[in-house]
Amino acid sequence: MRVDLFDFHLPPENIALRPVSPRHAAKMLLVPAAGDFGHHQVIDLPKLLKAGDCLIFNDTRVIPAQLTGRRGDAVIGATLHKRIDLRRWQAFIRNAKRLKVGDQIDFGQDVRAAAEQRHADGSFTLYFEGDDPVELLLARAGTMPLPPYIAGKRPVDERDLSDYQTMFAQKDGAVAAPTAALHFTPDLTEALDVAGIKTATLTLHVGAGTFLPVKAQDTDDHRMHSEWGSIDAATAGRLNQVRASGGRLIAVGTTSLRLIESAAKDDGTIEPFEGDTDIFITPGYRFKAAGGLMTNFHLPKSTLFMLVSAMMGRERMQAAYAEAIAQNYRFYSYGDSSLLLP
């Protein structure tokens, strides 16, 4: 499909630079398969789902994966994308023309990395030198990797250390937050439990590729970057039991949805999964396991807007986004939410 079919105009003032407080006070647009849209707050979620439904969260934890250093007199920026091994990361490089294989980048705070390999997409494999764990090096020299549409308008600060982390975050490795879950609070999860809504967690370490624009003119020509994910056997069994009992699997965020669809067989059965996925969901895709999606509002012509269009229909989502803009919903990572129920 043509990428420009997924374009829309978003006024800059609709881009959220900070989350609301409390988090569950964010607005939420209910998008059913047909009929009127519903205007709610995230705290209303227990009333919008059914007992026996299951919300699926991503328990990845965002690491301080944004680095700025020097190679000689050149300033080099690095956004870590995907862990290769204990000391190596694939990274997207700013000012990459000034970096070649074999160069050393000094990131300050006694943190240095060697450019070991250049990949076909222009990214590099960085080897972090020394004996300290890379996580400790990043804690010293790295900053939180806020999306460009936020970082381009204000600097990263101490508030982002907590604001850009979900309450479910446990496993280090993400370069971007699974932002749909930023809206959840202990009060909300307690209300969900009382309402009989089940929960489950999986892990998908979100990579920096989620920030990259789609440069192709046709979706067939776009290549997704792979990300590592895991669903253990116990979780897969619980999710299958929910479906067998007539409950819906509601993914909280596109990362959770992409992973359960990667792990699902054609009949919808979810199998344990551990490894990379580069699944690219566009209109025409047949969903195998997911029965709904809670997600924030995404960029024009992005792979994520293509994904929600695949679930609800492109014209339906264009109308939903037009409604959200008209009602002053806040967009992107720190913005408001939507609940898609096909």
List the helices and strands and how they pair.
Layout (H helix, E strand, L loop, with lengths): L26 E6 L5 E4 L3 H4 L5 E5 L1 E3 L3 E6 L2 E10 L4 E7 L9 E3 L5 E7 L5 E5 L5 H8 L6 H4 L6 H6 L7 E4 L11 H9 L3 E7 L22 E5 L1 H12 L4 E4 L1 H10 L9 E5 L14 E5 L6 H10 L1 H13 L10 E5 L1
Parallel strand pairs: 1-17, 3-12, 3-14, 4-11, 14-16
Antiparallel strand pairs: 1-2, 5-6, 6-7, 7-10, 8-9, 9-10, 12-13, 13-15, 16-17
Helix pairs in contact: 8-9
Give structural notes:
It is found in: Cytoplasm. It comes from Sphingorhabdus arenilitoris. This protein is an alpha/beta fold. It has two domains: 3-62 and 162-341, QueA-like; 66-142, QueA-like (Thrombin, subunit H). It is 22% helix and 27% strand. The protein has a nine-stranded mixed sheet with strand order 2-1-17-16-14-3-12-13-15. Strand 9 (112-118) and strand 10 form a beta hairpin. The protein is globular and about 60 Å long. It starts with 26 loop residues before the first strand and ends with a strand.
